[in-house]
Amino acid sequence: MLRFLLNVLWLVFGGGFVLALGYGVAALICFALVVTIPFGVASLRLASYALWPFGRTVVPKPGAGVASGLANVLWVLLAGWWLALSHILAGVALCVTIIGIPFGVANFKLVPAALWPLGQEVVETP
């Protein structure tokens, strides 16, 4: 019940909708450029995570190889840096208030996923 409450508050006050919208825009751009469709899929995965982060985490996907690592370098250059920057700015802004600290921490938790999304998967925490 607490996770549900935190996720609803995150969606309304923590910027979850705006951050997920940023990932959605990145996904649409990646889908328009046919070669970058895997980036679009990863971006949509992170959009759902940015929309509802409490009770879930990002873990390395078993079997992700060197190609994922090389593609992540390209991702960081094209889209990852501005998505990570948006999480950092939102996290700092939310940590200014006492009530916003859990949401700021959630934003900081999303920074590595924004920078390195390929070869990662979102799983439920126990």
Automatic annotation (TrEMBL):
The chain crosses the membrane at residues 63-82, 88-108. Coiled coil: none annotated. One of its GO terms (cellular component) is plasma membrane. Keywords: Membrane, Transmembrane, Transmembrane helix. Residues 5-56, 70-120 form the Inner membrane component domain. InterPro entries: Inner_membrane_protein, UCP028777, YccF. PANTHER family: INNER MEMBRANE PROTEIN YCCF. This is Uncharacterized membrane protein YccF, DUF307 family.
